[in-house]
Each structure stands twice: as C-alpha cells, then as structure tokens.
C-alpha cells in the first residue's frame, strides 16, 4: 500500500481505494480528450459519513479532491490532472424515499440518469430531464453541471427539478438544503449555489428530485430545411400552433457522421444542409401537419417524416442523439454556446460566416437544442493533425467566436459546464465583478481550495 493509500485508509476501506495505473487512467478523465489524466488515487465512498470524513481528512492533509460520476462531461470538469484524489460515487446508487403525494424521490449522487427515469416510470410518473448520455451520466454530475439536454424547451434545466440536496462542503460540514419543500422563503436558498457549481463548493451526496406526470404518447418529426436561418422560422411556426416537447437541429455533416456507422437510416430522401427534429404529444399531430404544410409553402422546409410507432420515433431520435458518439474519433473541439432565442437568427448568420472564413480546411458539425437558443459547434480534427496543433488552431478562432458571442450577450457554456476547457473564457459571460463574488463564495465553502481545484474560475490575473 502506498503512503497516500495508507492515509486514505483511515477513512475509506482499503478494498475501495485504487492506485493501479488502469484505474487512475479510467477515473482521471471525462469525455474530454485534451487532458492527460494524472490522478494519485481513486476512492469509492458508500455513505455520507465516509464522504464527510474524507473531506475532513483531505482538508487536514491538503489533499485535492475531484468528484466523479459517469464522467460524461465535455469540459474537463471531472479530469484529475495534477495528482488529485478522485472521489467516485459509483457505489452510491440508492433510490429511496419515494413520496407519491409530493411526487418526489431521493437519489444518491451515483444513480445513473436512466435508472431514475425507469424508476419514475415504474411509479407511473416521469423524470423529464433527458440527454444522450442518460445511460452513463449520474445524478450528482447532472446537478453539478445543471444539465439540460433535449427537452429543455418544455421541461427546463436540471435545476428546476431539484427539491433538496445533501452536500459536504469543502470545510467538511454537512448541509441539508430545502429537504423537498415547495415553499421555503427563509432567506438565501443555498441549494441553488450547488446546482452548476461543478464540485467546487462541496460534494453532492444525495438529492431529492421532483417528478412529473407520466407523458402522453408522443410523435417525432424530422424535417429537411434548405438553410440554417429557416430552422428558427420553423420553430416559431410550430410553437404558434402546438406545445413542443423538444426542438432540435443538426446539419447534413452531422447526419453523415451518424449514417456512416450503419446502424440507422436516413430519415428523408431529400438532402438539405440542415434538419429539424421535433417531438410533441400525439394529440397535436393535426396541428403539427398543418404547421409543416405552412412551412413547406413558405419555402422553409423541403421534406419531412413523422413517426408512426415508438420504434420509428426512437430511430429518428438516434439521428440526433448519436452525433456526439459518432464524431468522437475525430476528437472534436466543442463550443456549447447560447443566446436569447430572439437574437439567434442574426447570431447564427454571423457565426456561420465567421466559421466558414476561419475554418476553410476543417469540417464543422452543427447541432443543438436550438429551441432554447443553445448551439453545439463541433470542429473536427483532421486525421493527420496532432491534437496540440489542432487545439491551437481552435483556440485562436475561439477568441473571434466569443467576441461575437459577447456582443450578443450570450453564454460561452450553455449546458456542458466550464471545467478546465472553458475556464479562461469565463470573462466572456461573467463580469470582473461577478467573478470577484464567485471567488468569495468559493472561499467561504472551500477555504483551503481542496475541491476540484483549477476548475470553473480563471486564475486571478486572467479575470
């Protein structure tokens, strides 16, 4: 046993401490591939008491801790790159305290998102926050990044479903926040500080989450659009006639990446530069068809298909949800930005021209949750270019992209978080005054800076 493992064994069973090279590699990184993992150990707590004891030990011995769930993040927020101890919550996966009257349930941090969704359905209810990584991502990480996903346009972000939290702060204190209350107007709601905090204020141990009514049967429609600016016109046309569960878009380049894997088929025969994917309750199908016809007449859509079964609906969703996995071999450099939706058409037009000018030799894949103003821009690494050179090119253009974004008062991280990858760009979205207060908040909750150091906030001289 190494010296570090022996020290950790004072609070964690040695059988749940790993220091082997494979574990350090596996648990030391997330889906970001721009950082070499360099964890010193991985621990697997099983209780609130163990988490608290671990933080208290880390504070006493100046050990840096990196929380870890499903490690599906795309900003380096779960990467351990400087000898940190990774705290994996994968052995804390209990779902309990279901309250059918309040429609709430308690989940430990390591509960996989899809497991919660299946549990809710078994109770005749629904957990509506959804994304492609549902089978791997964990509740603690979802909360820590305020995950959004594919149904924000109807159901909102993860924050909207958090009714209570149990956290261990960087000072080693246990906080039980809100505890499922609907009304609790008793001062500052600290719960919301931890949603989106990326593990820099405390370790989320469990959460009380709200559930929704079981959804009605749904239909999925995929439509072919001749131009990117038509997508938002289509969104407005449909939203004026019916309630949408989801409104997504993707480019032909994105679809080609998915189709190349051979597991799904093209949705429509007509090939256009962009496509919209819509989901709505089946009862709205007549209104949706009327909206579609109006968009075709206006020249905004060239073709479309509507699902006739759950199987077909799932296959249509694969065209959108499988994009990230399909382009992973090209080590994409991702920008996850958002603007107020009324400003999106002008922003998209300006950004599209900029990317075409600055990336003439790179493949750029567009997709995203355009119904809530969120765009995912993925620049694909040429197979003959090394990662460091490619990243250098992308970061040069980033400054131009974020100059445009700042003029539109948008966010440089709509839902993926800040982590390591976007930390130095935080001033694009946050003023120097805001960052000053954010540092002050972090100092209160983590006075020794042991929790996820180096993440979220830029160095003081960069602010």
TrEMBL record:
Keyword Transferase in annotation: no
Superkingdom classification of source: Bacteria
UniProt cross-references to PROSITE patterns, sorted A to Z: FAD_PCMH
Gene3D superfamilies, per database record: 3.30.465.10, 3.30.70.2190, 3.30.70.2740, Uridine Diphospho-n-acetylenolpyruvylglucosamine Reductase, domain 2, Vanillyl-alcohol Oxidase, Chain A, domain 4
GO biological process: respiratory electron transport chain
Domain FAD-binding PCMH-type, first and last residues per copy: 35-214
Key words, A-Z: FAD, Flavoprotein, Oxidoreductase
Family recorded in the similarity comment: Belongs to the FAD-binding oxidoreductase/transferase type 4 family.
Protein name per its UniProtKB record: FAD/FMN-containing dehydrogenase
